Amino acid sequence: MNHSPLDITIIFTSYGSFRPLNYFFFTLTFIFYLLSVLSNILLMLVIYFESSLHKPMYIFLFNLAVNGLIGSSAIWPKVMENLLSDTQKSSLLACLVQVFWSYFYISSAYTTFSVMAYDRYISICKPLLYHSIMTPRKVKALLTAANIIPLSSISIQVYLTSTLPMCGYTIHNLFCDNLELLKLSCVKSALVSLYGVCMITILIGFPCIIVLLSYAKILTVSLKASKDARKKALSTCSPHLITFINLSLASLFVDIYHRYSSVLPGNACIVMIIDIFVIPPLLHPIIYGIRTQEIRKCFVKTVRKKERFFRIYSAFSLTMKFRLRSGPINVLFNDKIN
């Protein structure tokens, strides 16, 4: 039976398994979400205000930080609301919106990783041609493609899902997932399934190939270079590889779970989903801030500037208070007023 998205209510069943600990999990989720938001905003501010970081690598990293904010905000506020509610539910319309932003976060992360890998490949393998290849115009084009392609692809996917009639209304998950919604549908659409395979190929498969080929070439060139050059290349690329591998392994497990959910424990999928939506948004600012020397230096420089400003401001405020309390200044002000 067809319903309007506004009329259908989706029930989440995973919260019942740890209901006695809901307040503890709410506190934990809130702390991780707050840390993720603050760390990504801090990284964005450092890159934005430091002109020395206005380079392709850090512009792509800025986009990755924005993407991390989107991923965290798409999932965890609703999860925290459900943890404090007696009934864990959502309208189908809100569910589709959550699917859109969560899938955009994952797919945009992969496309951003691919352009970052391409940037590192040009920087390490073709250093003399770097500035002629990675022009501002090309950086804008790559950044636009890394966001527009996922945006348009996910929009079509969500629209196709919204046209399917629903016969089930319960999801064994913490939040809305497109594959779970497809399981609730009364019909199996070959078009939706085919489009899903094409989307995975374009948004995940193709970026993975670019990343693997780029780093294979980087590794080949690094092995032939000097020890210092090899160390610098590995230091620059290792944060990217760590975060990419973590996201890929977690995404692969979730995809396997949806195909073989009958033989795998449900809580294992929840752990992997937490890994996708907690670890990368929190890990990216920390690992890039620690491992990337230029960001670390700029961060320390920014903190020192702020400390110096507050010292000067405090000294100025104390001086003005002292002078305003002194007799001659007060007399002078009173004469002017009179």
Provide an overview of this structure.
- A three-stranded mixed β-sheet has the order 2-1-3.
- Helix content is 79%, strand content 3%.
- The protein has 338 residues and is mainly alpha-helical.
- The chain folds into two domains: 9-291, Up-down Bundle (Rhopdopsin 7-helix transmembrane proteins), CATH 1.20.1070.10; 294-338.
- The model has no long low-confidence stretch (mean pLDDT 80).
- The chain contains eleven helices and three strands, in the order βααβαααβαααααα.
- The termini are far apart.
- The protein has helices at residues 22-49, 56-83, 92-125, 130-133, 136-162, 178-184, 190-224, 227-259, 266-291, 293-325, 327-337; strands at 9-12, 89-91, 170-171.
- The protein is globular and about 60 Å long.
- Helix 2 (56-83) runs antiparallel to helix 9 (266-291).
Layout of secondary structure:
Layout: E1 9-12, H1 22-49, H2 56-83, E2 89-91, H3 92-125, H4 130-133, H5 136-162, E3 170-171, H6 178-184, H7 190-224, H8 227-259, H9 266-291, H10 293-325, H11 327-337
Parallel strand pairs: 1-3
Antiparallel strand pairs: 1-2
Helix pairs in contact: 1-2, 1-9, 2-3, 2-9, 3-5, 3-7, 3-8, 5-7, 7-8, 8-9, 9-10
State the strand order across the main sheet.
2-1-3
Strand-pairing-aware structural class = mainly alpha
**Elements, N to C (H/E):** EHHEHHHEHHHHHH
Count of helical segments? 11
Structure summarized in a few sentences:
By secondary structure, this protein is an all-alpha fold.
